[in-house]
Here is the input.
Amino acid sequence: MSLGTRLEETRAGLERLQARTQSISAKRAEADDSLRLARRTLTLSQQRLARRVLLLYEQGDADPMAVLVGATSLEEALTGLESIHRVASQDRLVIEQAETARARLIVATKRLAAQEAQARRAEAATSATLAALEAARRERAAQLAAFRVTRGSNSATISTLEAEARALAAAPTQGGSLSGRTLTVSATGYALKGRTSTGVAVGYGVVAVDPSVIPLGTKMTIPGYGEGVAADTGGAVAGARIDLWFPTEAEALAWGTRTVSITLH
Here is the structure.
């Protein structure tokens, strides 16, 4: 998966998490309001029941026996008892409902609080991942820009070296032109970082040579390696020897030192 795709997916995931967190927060706020209302209802119901009981006692008709004794008729007695029973039942029902609602809302608010905390942790982790991906993208962009600058510099330097090599090849020498010439050399792999003696940044295809044998700027084909250009020198590179650059030490060690027949261009 590319870095850009991961960034887009992470941004979309963060937006979904933020929406979920907001939804949970809204539900929790609503549950908190309902819980406060249930507590207030329970308190008011208990206070009202207490006042009603007090009032019944003050009026002297809270005792069912007193109602029976004080009634002038059976119908009056039954009506009084039913009234006491109805009032007490209504108050108990309100209180029971308020207590049930309060217990249910306490559980709901605790559950929503846990969900909100979990959602915020997930949101924070996703935000951190997004920040890391954006930093990686900036770093990659900087590396790419540096690579382009290096590549441009290398291209200019190699062009100059090639021109020098062509001039040397065109000049009359004891050995004649190097173009098309095959040369057997000892080729060693290396993986050092930095720049060559000609100022070119090291890279695949950069070959260290003895300029007295292979002029700088000479292109060549190396069996098992590919195309290369003479762009570096070295104290250990003398005579029919060349050094081939590899991006990793493992690849350089795998190449080792080989005797190959190269073709100069």
User: Anything to note?
Assistant: The first helix runs from residue 3 to 59. Residues 48 and 91 are 8 Å apart (CA to CA). Residues 64-69, 171-176 have pLDDT under 50 and may be disordered. Helices lie at 3-59, 64-70, 74-170, 249-255.
